[in-house]
Design brief:
Layout lengths: L1 E2 L3 H8 L10 E2 L5 H8 L2 H15 L16 E3 L4 H13 L7 E3 L18 E5 L8 H9 L6 H20 L7 E2 L4 E4 L5 E4 L1 E6 L2 E4 L1
Parallel strand pairs: 1-2, 3-4, 4-5
Antiparallel strand pairs: 5-9, 6-7, 7-8, 9-10
Length: 208
């Protein structure tokens, strides 16, 4: 599910071998709930309830049911505030047991009590934001240079790579544990990195 301009990433994800039961598009906060409700089939379930009630001409005890062909949800959100608005609505509309995945755009980079609304959300993140190099991070914080943690991690790894670039050229199997991920050199001499699986737990991002 994502904003209307999220169709491209959704198609790219499908190209990797998965399939989409439904793609939910939303334009703003006013239609978050209605979009999720329709995408999960809750509206159809409620329509069946009304049909049965009308046939029996009496009140019907009823709990809406979401569609059963969904195994996981990929949440495309621009920022943490948007994700915090959307994630609780999934539980409200009977999808709280489904695993939910998102990009690192949902995490600003520092703990925030409001992120308790994101508990259980899965993402991949920089080792730097999961506690790597604590002494270096403390030194940057003491110097007042910790306002942009992702850029700090990039700078640290840039220094690391310039000192170990020849080592990386030894072969594609050589890996360096950096602060922006697990680093390797591909045949085109481009640096590739593998991020760390993580999840929100009690409002904090922790490694899985």
């Amino acid at each position: 599910m994502g904003r209307q301009n999220g169709a491209g990433p959704a198609r790219a994800l499908a190209d990797t071998g998965g399939s989409f039961s439904s793609a939910i598009a939303y334009t703003g906060q006013d239609d978050y709930s209605a979009s999720i409700k329709n995408g999960l089939g809750i509206a159809s379930s409620e329509a069946r309830r009304r049909q049965i009630r009308d046939m029996l001409a009496e009140p019907v005890e009823f709990t809406p049911r979401r569609r059963e062909d969904v195994d996981a949800i990929f949440l495309l959100a621009r920022n943490a505030a948007e994700a915090r608005s959307l994630k609780p609505l999934l539980a409200f509309h009977y999808a709280g047991a489904l695993p939910v995945y998102a990009t690192s755009s949902v995490y600003h980079g520092s703990p925030d009590e409001r992120d308790r609304d994101l508990n259980g959300l899965n993402l991949v993140e920089l080792p730097w934001l999961l506690g790597s190099s604590p002494a270096l991070q403390a030194g940057l914080a003491d110097g007042g240079n910790n306002a942009y943690p992702r850029l700090n991690a990039l700078g640290v790894d840039a220094y690391l790579l310039q000192s170990r670039f020849l080592q990386l050229q030894a072969g594609p199997d050589l890996l360096i544990r950096g602060n922006t991920g697990l680093l390797s050199l591909n045949p085109q001499l481009q640096i590739e990195r593998e991020l760390v699986p993580a999840e929100f737990d009690r409002g904090r991002v922790t490694p899985r």
